[in-house]
Amino acid sequence: MKTLTAGTPAPAFSLLNQDNELTNLADFKGKKVLAYFYPKAMTPGCTVQACGLRDSKTELDALNIVVLGISIDAVKRLPRFIERDNLNFTLLSDEDHAVAEQFGVWGEKKFMGKIYDGLHRISFLIDENGTIEHVFNKFKTKTHHEVVLDYFNSTE
Q: Measuring CA to CA, which residue among 106, 109, 138 is closest to residue 123?
C-alpha cells in the first residue's frame, strides 16, 4: 500500500452519494475538501469519528472545508447512517474500492490474528486546487475532528 502524500494531486474521483447521485471531487473546486476514509458505516469507531466531524461543522464551514466521508459501504447503507446519527455532510460509496486504491488506503490489515485486505482509516485535506495539502493518518476516532482543527490552528 502506497498512500498518497502532501503535494500530490488528488485523484479526480466520481462516486455515488447517499442520495444515489454522482458526486465529483471537481464539484468542490475553490473549497478545501476533507476526504476521510472510514471502514464501515454504523460501527462504533466510525460512528464516533463521524459524530465528531458532525459536531465540528460550524468550525469546518468557517475554514471553507467540505467533508466527504468515503467507505466501501453500498449506497443503500449510507442514508441510514446519516439519519441514525444526524450527520450533516456527504457520504460516498466506493464499493469496489477503486478510489481507495488510488489514494493508497486499501491494503493489508491485521485484526485478531487474521490478515485481510481492507480500508485504512486515513484522511486527506485537499486544497482549493485539487492538491493534497495534508494527510491525517495518526489519530484516534474520538479526536479525529480535533486533529483536523488543530492542524489549522497551528498553520495560521
A: 138
Per-residue pLDDT tens for 54-87?
999 999 999 999 999 999 999 999 999 999 999 9
Q: Which residues are catalytic?
A: 46
Q: What is the SS3 assignment for 32-50?
A: EEEEEECCCCCCHHHHHHH
Are 119 and 37 contacting, i.e. CB atoms less than 8 angstroms apart?
yes
Strands 123-126 and 114-119: unpaired
Distance CA 156, CA 150 (A): 10
Q: Which of 140, 134, 137 is nearest to 155 (CA)?
A: 134
pTM given for the model:
0.94
Confidence of residue 155 (pLDDT cuts 50, 70, 90): low
Distances 97 to 34, 83, 87, 125, 135 between C-alpha atoms, Å: 18, 24, 23, 19, 19
- Mean pLDDT of the region 98-107: 95
- Single out the residue of 48, 46, 52, 34 nearest to residue 71, CA to CA: 46
For the beta carbon of residue 143, count every other beta carbon within 10 angstroms: 14
DSSP state of 156: -
